[in-house]
Amino acid sequence: MALRLPSQFSTPRHRRRGCGAATAPAAAAAGLSWRRSLAADALVSSGCSSSPLASSPSPSPGKSRARPLVTCTAQAPAAANLAPGTPVRPTSILVVGSTGTLGRQVVRRALDEGYDVRCLVRPRPAPADFLRDWGATVVNADLSRPETIPATLVGIHTVIDCATGRPEEPIKKVDWEGKVALIQCAKAMGIQKYVFYSIHNCDKHPEVPLMEIKYCTEKFLKDSGLNHIVIRLCGFMQGLIGQYAVPILEEKSVWGTDAPTRIAYMDTQDIARLTFIALRKENANGKLLTFAGPRAWTTQEVITLCERLAGQDANVTTVPVSVLRLTRQITRFFEWTNDVADRLAFSEVLSSDTVFSVPMNETYDILGVDSKDIVTLEKYLQDYFTNILKKLKDLKAQSKQTDIFF
């Protein structure tokens, strides 16, 4: 039976019926689709057809043959009939990837602004109690298991998708197959808005599986008909703490490359704040926005800044870009290292002569934001080092007091 979903609701309190557990998998039979031909070394995703290369010989034991040419296809579900059902409040949101660096900041910002926050969290040995302590509701589900998704969307108005696969997982499992299932189910259940975080310039690097997947997902989301906002990101300031600040303070090796890559890092708290401003702006609907920090930095510039703020020199170990390329080529020969090669491809892009930045003037105009309100990397790192050095000083003073015996 053909079902229809109205593009707009006339009342602020929308009504929606539930969706059965089989909705997402069954949606693949619907007619809306988007196709993109991937490179021979790209991923093989769900719902894709492949034809082996004519010159590909049978692989020897322990080795994989050249990857097939694939056409990645995914289909959005038919619209659902949303005649009278359960009231859905515009403040009800589902955050996917809520335990990550960005996800937890999105959750905190949402709670601070009065949203009813539900967090989709994979079953894990250490439960995400900190999310409950903040006031969010936690539901267990797994994007790699589509049948677990529909129940998490009942009563939800907006989905904010911060999720990405774990390093030990095949990239396509969560970042492509899981996202397709999530978008399909969101469409079938009448989700009113979908926010997707992507990567800056992902459309320009089809040779990198993660970036190609992000671009494919952007297109699939657009063609699904969901009201959406795509936000491309350049880099997180928080990631620099573990990569540079902590090793310098602990006098450990700091790893870098010899490439002049420049990245406009942004504080994830600013990203979360701008996201919710975008949610409230009608002129942001359907937009592709790129969030970038005030300035693009090279690795060496970041290390120099950390050295100055820490008051000590870094022990820098430089990895030539040529080594990354060679490592990637070697790992592609073996089936069990294919995912390592995929991630090294992303590292290689970050280690090339590229700039991950974009002028923010248009974005500031759309959102009505003053550029002076965006935290600079100097300010972020200065606050970190000031706080951590004060704590270390206090701990040292306490340690000296405990050395006195009677």
From TrEMBL:
Residues 92-341 form the NmrA-like domain. It comes from the Eukaryota. One of its GO terms (cellular component) is plastid. It is found in: Plastid. Its main location: plastid. InterPro entries: HCF244-like (IPR044256), NAD(P)-bd_dom_sf (IPR036291), NmrA-like (IPR008030). One of its GO terms (biological process) is photosynthesis. Residues 1-21, 47-67 are annotated as: Disordered. Keywords: Photosynthesis, Photosystem II, Plastid. PANTHER family: PROTEIN HIGH CHLOROPHYLL FLUORESCENCE PHENOTYPE 244, CHLOROPLASTIC, PTHR47128. This is NmrA-like domain-containing protein. It comes from Eucalyptus globulus (Tasmanian blue gum).
